[in-house]
Amino acid sequence: MKVESSDGETGTVISLPPAVFPTAKAPATGGESEREEEELFVPPLNFAMVDNGVFRSGFPSFANFSFLQSLGIRSIVYLCPEPYPEANVEFLKANGIGLYQFAIEGTQHRTGCLVGCLRRLQRWCLSSIFDEYQRFAAAKARVSDQRFIELFDVSSLKHFPLSCSCSNR
Amino acid sequence: MKVESSDGETGTVISLPPAVFPTAKAPATGGESEREEEELFVPPLNFAMVDNGVFRSGFPSFANFSFLQSLGIRSIVYLCPEPYPEANVEFLKANGIGLYQFAIEGTQHRTGCLVGCLRRLQRWCLSSIFDEYQRFAAAKARVSDQRFIELFDVSSLKHFPLSCSCSNR
């Protein structure tokens, strides 16, 4: 299944609404040995922060769940046509995380396309958008995806804020 | 000069203290043609968001100044031994941005090392830290840098918050 592939992003954007969430784990207060025994976080493949409260990553597995909890995310946007695996659905339910599935076909790098269109809205120049796309797509980079980003019509969304990087909403 | 090189990151981390900053540009309110004529933003090479209010990038040039303004940054951490160029100093002065220079020698990818050490503090597993390091270092990736990140002693900083991704401070 595509969603089980381990080659990076398969179409998941994790978004955090603009609100304050408690940390899942409090900072360590014990001694050094206690801290050393603490679990390490395992971010999903290709994990990165896109903007305030918006993250991107490959499809998360069980190993990533505690990291996702630490982010305090409230919703996940899933871009693959395949059904969301039951174990992940259970994790979302247990943590009050909403799932929004948009089955996108015909692109090699769905998350990269979505982030690229967001950058168009933020008025990034195309060379910077493509640089970011290629950094995450690596071997999956496709000219057709970049053409899609370039031709994405932002005119209907012209009242979208130009950038949200500077606001700590 | 290294700081003028165009091959990606040369040691700049741009940080935004946890406070609310106004956007440098208000959203477009005019017609479509007006919006189309608006300037596009040119982020510095290898620009990315590291965490809330913390950004990374290669050395910024004049073309990047309006983008940096839009972020509302308050300080820049500069990791190269070379003097900061006068044009950039003027830009910082005009925008009330502080400059903090730490002349780091003997690493191929200074910003990547610094971000890697931050990820150690955030308790990311090493495979994820190295994956992120390599994504930005590309051809400049060095095993010695990754060894530095691995051996970085976080015990003296054990009271550092494990993760700040979830807080919108």
From TrEMBL, chains A, B:
One of its GO terms (molecular function) is phosphatase activity. SUPFAM superfamilies: (Phosphotyrosine protein) phosphatases II. InterPro entries: PFA-DSPs (IPR020428), Prot-tyrosine_phosphatase-like (IPR029021), Siw14-like (IPR004861). Gene3D superfamilies: Protein tyrosine phosphatase superfamily. Coiled coil: none annotated. The keyword Hydrolase applies. GO terms for cellular component: cytoplasm. Pfam families: Y_phosphatase2 (PF03162). Keywords: Hydrolase. The keyword Nucleotidyltransferase does not apply. This is Putative tyrosine-protein phosphatase. It comes from Morus notabilis. The lineage of its organism: Eukaryota, Viridiplantae, Streptophyta, Embryophyta, Tracheophyta.
